[in-house]
């Protein structure tokens, strides 16, 4: 077998493995038929234009057509543990804590599906995370579907396992209940952390229907359990009808900085983020983005929509403005695919998670020509 034939065969093998959802090996040994000589050949994907390296990189549409293959996050490898990883994505298919429209349990699956459109390089900021961060999809948390408190323990246990290697995590929700057990696991690793919470709602209720754990009690529970540094918590985008004037009183009394949506109307949030980077300082920061922070015209597929929300441009400004902070994890929650058959809400969530990945410390940035 000559060199050209060996290369063609290896490309076909690579393509077949990709269609089966498997990564080709980085090197194979080819034997020339004439002289029986053995030689190592670097394998590439179907186009043969990019060797695989020690860093995982999403498959492009040239390497594998977007409708093909297994739906992992950004078509990254799926792993069972985080050894050797810098960042991983974790699905949490849970919506038993929701108070209005259900369906967020299907969020991880739909967000992964729509994530196939998200490419490896950020043309807005120059971020190229896969050049310097090893990233993978760690699958979904196995949890009980019938008991909220047991589910919270399941989530916390799994995140503690994944964090133990030093990997940082991005969670794919699921309703906002999931952030409470995630923050409990984060506390074990990092102590009390700062928080950028983007949402239409405060989520600081004492109880919901006499239950302590639900999507509207998340940040009260997290603060009570010492997961948050109250002087480094920022809530952005709050709005809508409420129960009383006291709705904002509790977070303000705890030291949270509260920025209602009306303070964001008709303007860029770049200067706000400049201020918040200084406010949050050098300590660890977690980002929690409830998709209902966006106006329902941008993200209708959610359980508790409120009119008058943020724009997708403002969402990008918030997350991109986190560059320079010590980001140690994050989540996007409350995507309910049944309420948006177009898939655009899930696609928006996939893009926001990519933006979060791009602001992790250690991400490489390239200079943009324009």
Describe this protein's structure.
The chain is of the alpha/beta class and 370 residues long. It is 27% helix and 18% strand. The strands form 3 sheets. Strands 5-3-6-11-10-7-8-9 form an 8-stranded parallel sheet, with helices on both faces. Helix 2 crosses helix 9. The radius of gyration is 22 Å and the shape is globular. About 7% of the residues have low confidence.
Question: Main beta sheet, described?
Answer: 8 strands, parallel
Instruction: Tell me the distance between the termini.
Output: 47 Å
Return the string of H and E elements: HEEEHEEHEHEHEHEHEHEHE
Radius of gyration: 22 Å
Outline type: globular
Strand-pairing-aware structural class: alpha/beta
Would you tell me the overall average pLDDT? 89
What proportion of the residues form beta strands (DSSP E)? 15-25%
Number of helices: 9
Q: What are the low-pLDDT stretches, counting only 5+ consecutive residues below 50?
A: 26-52
Q: Helical amount among residues, as a percent range?
A: 25-40%
Strand order of the largest sheet: 5-3-6-11-10-7-8-9
Number of strands: 12
